[in-house]
Amino acid sequence: MQSRVLAILIAVVLALVATAAMVVYVNGADRRAISGQKPTMVLVAVGAIPQGMSGEDAQNKKLIDWAPVPTRNALKNRVASLEQLKNRYADVPIAPGEQLLLNRWVGAQDLDGRRLLTIPEGHQAVSVGVDLVRQVAGFITPGDRVNVAVTRPDSEGKDETSFVLRNVQVLAVGATALTRNSTQSNGGRINQGRGSQTLTAVTLSVEDTRVVPVINAAEEGSIYLTLLPPTAAEEAAKGTSADAGGVLGGP
């Protein structure tokens, strides 16, 4: 009789313990589920980001923004801050809505010669060496639109300035080099930023028909860039001012 009562008591105790454990587990699962539904802000592509585009350029073109996602959907290897995209490039095309992942953004040296520039059809990428002052004190960045002026001697040997291009897009800014210490003796070339001043290579998107004049300007004269307001991009999209007028001697 006593053994039967003892067995019943043990069964009751085990049932209570099992019930308590089940309650604790269910409550914990509920808390985890609720926590997973809380939003976490992550960086996503709001537009298509082509392979080779820099993080800075993607930001300037407003292709990146913060968006809330359920915490459980926030990827562990995501880009945590815009600072992490500095001097990094998209290793693969990134579709709109994708979370930005660190392993998809690499340094220029990791691209191993892959195409870094997105050049519009009918254009060519042309780099010109410009010192800090002649690129608006360094405020020119990829995605900006600029005018290109050149100063060179006229037929009487006097310096004359004219626009080579108007409202052209900057594709890249970087790569420095030292200027030559003297001008060339055959052609009266004006050495850009004379002496040992450091130049910065500014790469422009130039229409096919304007490439030769730009190269001539860089070889024979001193290049000066002027920075245009954001509305210039809208005008260029309408075809109203890009590369228009002022070609080597124009107003």
Please tell me about this protein's structure.
The protein is of the alpha+beta class and about 250 residues long. The chain has two domains: about 40-110, Type Iii Antifreeze Protein Isoform Hplc 12, CATH 3.90.1210; about 125-235, no CATH class. The protein is about 25% helix and about 30% strand. It has four helices and nine strands. A five-stranded antiparallel sheet has the order 5-8-7-6-9, sandwiched between helices. A two-stranded antiparallel ribbon has the order 1-2. A two-stranded antiparallel sheet has the order 3-4. The longest helix is centred in the first third of the chain and has 36 residues, at about 1-35. The model is unreliable at about 175-195 and about 240-250 (pLDDT under 50).
The neighbouring-strand order within the major sheet is 5-8-7-6-9
N-to-C series of helices and strands: HEHEEEEEEEHEH
Unreliable stretches (pLDDT < 50, length at least 5) are 175-196, 239-251
Question: Strand percentage, roughly?
Answer: 25-35%
CA-atom Rg in angstroms:
31 Å
Largest sheet: 5 strands, antiparallel
Give me the number of helical elements. Answer: 4
Share of helix, binned: 10-25%
How many domains? 2
Report how far the terminal alpha carbons are from each other.
Answer: 116 Å
Number of strands: 9
Q: Which structural class do the helices and strands define?
A: alpha+beta
Q: What shape does the CA trace take?
A: rod-shaped
Indicate the mean pLDDT. Answer: 75
